[in-house]
């Protein structure tokens, strides 16, 4: 599955947020048991209002959302890249995630110590990212020595890798994350292979006090501005409120949300943002048994999409009968869409679109 890491300084609200995420996931998934893979990994359902609409039209007995994993990565402090705190463990954990959500403290509370003794979410972001940059810098400088030796011989791959390493180092030495380097499409694979921390896509999470959950505050404004500078998305959330919401049943939660002026739990926005960040989207299958959302990479072709259902389907793919979500709903289901000529027969070069309702035909 796809993993999004929750990263930040101590006492910013990471665990509160993580616990709310896993509690909500446990509560909402009666027919899809919540599984704790490891104590710090939570497997959550991606909120998808379109699924319910499909299930009603198709008369589905069950609704099965797609899933996303969040990993609570504790232990980052200044000096982590030099092994301070849980330094090395922290870095190992973060290497394994596909994207990073920076949780930034945007609430004041004299009872809760801030490790730096002040509330400054942008400075906190810089502290965290600096540790990641230092870790990348160090690991690349180590690797470079060996690569340079190999590149002096006839090792073409080493030569190509060395060029990429130097491009990353150039950014890092300027104090910029490696993701700011320019990478050509045909270099993407080798670039990913470097497994750097600062090439992962990032998301800013502004954790505000309860009173600022709907409108934000001066700190969260700073976070949104900073995110914009990096071309990244920011999500406004109050971990405290999310923790309270997670303990309520649906009706109570809806009432509570109305009172504080929120349309939906902040966690839904966070989960969706994580999904976007990972470059994912959704196609559906719908029938009397179940209406189900499936996660694929944006740009995935039909056979790859079929392979998410069953690995065999990718090899045995023949065609995909496809109806767009809008047509499916507007016409009132598969049969009507077919009669209206809105069911397309797509082949193996078809790029699956977000919201496609699909049937795969496979051979032997
Ligand atoms: P972590 O170290 O980043 O995992 O932080 P925790 O989630 O353990 O939170 C540290 C403390 O801050 C706990 O006592 C939380 O209850 C508190 N906290 C978290 N979010 C908020 C918030 O939005 N408002 C207030 N007042 N306290 C919060």
Give an overview in words:
With 364 residues, this protein is an alpha/beta fold. The protein has 3 domains: 3-49 and 64-119 and 201-277, Rossmann fold, CATH 3.40.50.300; 133-193, Obg-related GTPase Ych/YyaF, coiled-coil domain (DNA polymerase, domain 1, Orthogonal Bundle), CATH 1.10.150; 299-362, Roll (Ubiquitin-like (UB roll)), CATH 3.10.20.30. The protein contains 14 helices and 12 strands. It has helices at residues 14-28, 49-58, 87-95, 121-152, 156-173, 188-193, 218-229, 239-246, 250-260, 266-277, 302-309, 311-315, 325-331, 334-339, and strands at 3-7, 41-45, 62-64, 67-72, 99-106, 202-208, 233-237, 280-286, 290-297, 317-323, 344-346, 357-362. It has a 6-stranded mixed beta sheet, sandwiched between helices. It has a 3-stranded mixed beta sheet with strand order 3-9-8, sandwiched between helices. A 3-stranded antiparallel beta sheet has the order 11-10-12. Strand 8 (280-286) and strand 9 (290-297) form a beta hairpin. It is flat and about 65 Å long. The two termini are 27 Å apart. It binds guanosine-5'-diphosphate. Guanosine-5'-diphosphate (GDP) is lined by residues 8, 10-16, 107, 109, 112, 207, 209, 238-240.
What secondary-structure arrangement, pairings included, does this model have?
Layout: E1 3-7, H1 14-28, E2 41-45, H2 49-58, E3 62-64, E4 67-72, H3 87-95, E5 99-106, H4 121-152, H5 156-173, H6 188-193, E6 202-208, H7 218-229, E7 233-237, H8 239-246, H9 250-260, H10 266-277, E8 280-286, E9 290-297, H11 302-309, H12 311-315, E10 317-323, H13 325-331, H14 334-339, E11 344-346, E12 357-362
Helix pairs in contact: 1-8, 4-5
């Amino acid at each position: 599955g796809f993993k999004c890491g929750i990263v930040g300084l101590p006492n910013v609200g990471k665990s509160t947020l993580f616990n709310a995420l896993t509690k909500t996931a446990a509560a909402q998934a009666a027919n899809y048991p919540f599984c704790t893979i490891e104590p710090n990994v939570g497997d959550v359902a991606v909120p998808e209002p379109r699924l319910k609409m499909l299930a009603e039209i198709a008369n589905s007995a069950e609704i099965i959302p797609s899933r996303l994993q969040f990993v609570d990565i504790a232990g980052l402090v200044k000096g982590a890249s030099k092994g301070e705190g849980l330094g090395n463990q922290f870095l190992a954990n973060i290497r394994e995630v596909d994207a990073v959500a920076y949780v930034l403290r945007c609430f004041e509370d004299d009872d809760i110590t801030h490790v730096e003794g002040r509330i400054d979410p942008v400075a906190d972001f810089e502290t965290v990212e600096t540790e990641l940059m230092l870790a990348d810098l160090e690991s690349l400088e180590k690797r470079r020595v060996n690569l340079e030796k190999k590149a002096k011989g006839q090792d073409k791959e080493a030569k190509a890798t060395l060029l990429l390493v130097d491009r990353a180092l150039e950014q890092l030495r300027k104090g910029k994350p490696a993701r700011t380097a320019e990478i050509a499409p045909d270099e993407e694979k080798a670039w990913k292979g470097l497994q750097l921390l600062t090439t992962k896509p990032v998301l800013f999470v502004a954790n505000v006090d309860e009173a600022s959950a709907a409108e934000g505050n001066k700190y969260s404004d700073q976070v949104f501005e900073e995110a914009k500078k990096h071309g990244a998305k920011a999500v406004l959330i109050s971990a405290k409120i999310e923790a309270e919401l997670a303990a309520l049943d649906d009706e109570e939660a809806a009432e509570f949300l109305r009172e504080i002026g929120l349309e939906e739990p902040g966690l839904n926005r966070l989960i969706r943002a994580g999904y976007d960040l990972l470059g994912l989207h959704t196609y559906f299958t719908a029938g009397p048994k179940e209406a189900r959302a499936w996660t694929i990479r944006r740009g995935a072709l039909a056979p790859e999409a079929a392979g998410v259902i069953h690995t065999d389907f990718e090899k045995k793919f023949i065609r995909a009968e496809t109806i767009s979500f809008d047509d499916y709903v507007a016409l009132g289901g598969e049969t009507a869409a077919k009669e209206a000529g809105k069911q397309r027969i797509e082949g193996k070069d078809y790029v699956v679109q977000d919201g496609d309702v699909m049937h795969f035909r496979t051979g032997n």
